[in-house]
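Closing statement on the magnesium ion sub-project.
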Amino acid sequence: MAYENILEVEHLSKRFPGVVALDDVELRVKTGTVHALMGENGAGKSTLMKVLNGMYKPDSGVIRFKGEPITIQDTRSAILNGISMIHQELSPIPQMTVAENIFLGREPIGPLGLINYKRLKEMTQELLDRLSIRIDPSVKVVNLSVANIQLIEIAKAISYNADLIIMDEPTSAITEREVEDLFKIIRALRDGGKSIIYITHKMDEVFHIADYVTIFRDGKYIGTDKADSITKQVLIEKMVGRALDEMFYKEKTKVGEVMLEARNLTKTGQFEDVSFKVHRGEILGISGLMGAGRTELLENVFGITSRESGAVLVKGKEVRIKSPADAIRHGMALLTEDRKLTGLYQMLSVRDNMYIANIRSYIRLLSLDFKKIRMDCESQVRKLRIKTPSLQQTIRNLSGGNQQKVLISRWLLTDPEILILDEPTRGIDVGAKAEIHRLMTELAKAGKAIIMISSELPEILGMSDRILVMHEGRKTGELAREEATQEKIMNLATGEVEAIAANGQ
Amino acid sequence: MASKAEEAAIGEKPVGGAGKNGILTTIKAMWTKIGILFIFIGMVILASFLSPAFLKANNLMNVVMQVSYIGLIALGVTGVIVSAGVDLSSGSIVALTAVVSSSFAQRPDWAAALFPGLTGLPFIVPLMVGLLVGSLVGFVNGWLIAKTNIPPFIATLGTMTAVRGLAQLYSRGRPVSGLSDAYNFIGQGSLFGVPFAVLLLLVLAIITHFMYSRTRFGRYVYAIGGNVNAARVSGINVGKNLILIYTFAGFLASVAGIVVASRIGSGQPGLGNGYELQAITAAVIGGTSFSSGGIGTVPGTIIGTLIIGVLNNILVLTNVSAYFQDIIRGIIIVGAVIIDERRRRVRK
Ligand SMILES: Nc1ncnc2c1ncn2[C@@H]1O[C@H](COP(=O)(O)OP(=O)(O)OP(=O)(O)O)[C@@H](O)[C@H]1O
Ligand SMILES: [Mg+2]
């Protein structure tokens, strides 16, 4: 450990067609520290990490690792050098077991060149025990929840015993309690002399875990500070380039008639006997731990799956919603949780991804009104500050957060009356998040009914008029905005208290 | 390594496989595997009722013998489909291998030898040449797919067409006959009363099974098919492993080519027509998934192969007309895949 900085990046640039993702950036990570990297969506954080991980080649610049300049050819050489990474986009191999996934590419080999599965399982068990992750090594990943998959990816990155571990939004899919556990692991790693680069959009996490913070903006290096010498305000200002107050934008709205009502919805194994109502002008927050059945419930309301019993009423009239098309016809919109799986048309342009759900209203005789489409899309790009070189850019090439914004625009264009948002700000930067929250409030004021699933308690508390909490497929409680606290929600979410609040109306 | 991470406790209770869902899915997955075995056993029982001739040892051996080529090809094709690819060239490889290896196996007394100067060579020469030719075509498939990034369907469609032409060209469009006894033993001989070709299939199936399920190479094929990006970021050389699996598939197709040629005692450029599709059928009936890579097993494929064999045999023994035979085969293929898709949807 002769070197003070385990990693020194200097004058590094990387451009993609039409985008300068990294413009002469630098980054210095002190050995044995947790170094947060922050910036808006599209600031170039993931791009730099992918350069360090050998997935992209930089156009120019120097990388010094453990004091020596290195070139990183591919992921393999990154691993050999002692750099491992948790990727922002989770990428497990579904049909393989936890053990196979973790040690993919490093399987223990016995005589005859055969994989020693017994040893593989032991190694995995040791690793998981060390990290106190309780997942069976021999279960197939396809059977795990997103949160558990994320834990597996974390375990995998740590298992390389790398000196520098890159974590690109490692907590996007796990809940606060698991985040706390991850932090314990990170501290233990740091105390053991490892260095960690930690990327997140969650402010609280930074002040909790990071020793240093580096900020990027628009592909440029802005600065590095000690985490305890910078305030949240300053941090945000540096990221966004202007002052921004981080308060949730919430206004009192006029609550009108019931827009959507669900009665005793049941689908065995997913959710049981759940009822709720959303009124015009209201935001109903839905909280719960991962796997509580929140997504399954709302996807069911939206007609994606069938159920055993229960009824859905729109504006007081029972409706039969057998497909998303029915739901859209009844004025609903659903922003799905998994944008890669159920949101994006990866190969299509930003524009095509945006107007597709609203295509009906652009039909002009035999063609589409492309001028109107362009205007609408451009106004969405401006409103949500979507970072894209043009409307023609293939959406796959946008940063994760910007992809999410495009999807939100898609549903806003349909001008829905009932808006269901499943983790609407997951992976979205502070600026855009505030923007989306403001939008939600505006929409509520304009008389829409909004349902928001969120795993972020501050967001739930800040934005909801009423909060429905679920635990293992059941509704464990409903809280009015005034009475809700972080603690009450957690108690209901973990199933420790099962008390349906009186304010159920 | 001295970490304090022990203190961290993630997940209050055991999660994942230990949960209800895990057990349920394993049961379901097992049911389907056994389900295919059930279908197979059911067909055998049905066959023995339909025709008393079916269960005779002689007939049974014949059933297996007749699908042994398909089985050999299907072993390789399984790996290819698992890697999220496809191989359409196997039938043409059978033809090319058949004519090329036969041309080195001709007896000296055969007047119409393709290369009169090369007759009477040791038995090992035609084998080596044949296997080399098939592996080479497989290598070209893999190289095209790995290096030029064209879809496997297109790459192997191209080689399928070109290699068929090559076989015609090489043999001047005529059968290559007059093969040595030693060579013909492969397709015609028996050991301990079992056709040699069947033993060959058995041995190669066992080796392939271990290769796919227990070696790094095999697991990397599953990994690539399951999620190519994950494989890449785990440091797996995707291109190299793709080339290897296609080469292996070509190798197995050439084994089939040698078996076919020696079975009929002549290498013909028209051999193996449609074998690629039958092999794919066997793999698919056996649970290899076309819709998502990373799924498929050798035992499944072998059962799939046997199902095809038994079905063919029933249809012949019961004198079903040829048209009906094809219709029934078609229904069985689609039915098998529907079952397969159902199983996949167990997820969540
Ligand atoms: N493969 C690619 N091709 C073209 N453009 C790309 C590619 N990868 C990234 N970009 C662009 O480079 C810029 C930086 O993207 P990057 O993913 O590094 O952002 P980020 O800081 O990680 O954002 P987020 O917080 O949303 O994850 C973005 O404008 C993005 O659109
Ligand atoms: Mg990113």
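Residues 5-240 of chain A form a domain with the Rossmann fold fold (CATH 3.40.50.300). With this model delivered, the sub-project is considered complete and its resources will be redirected to Aim 3.
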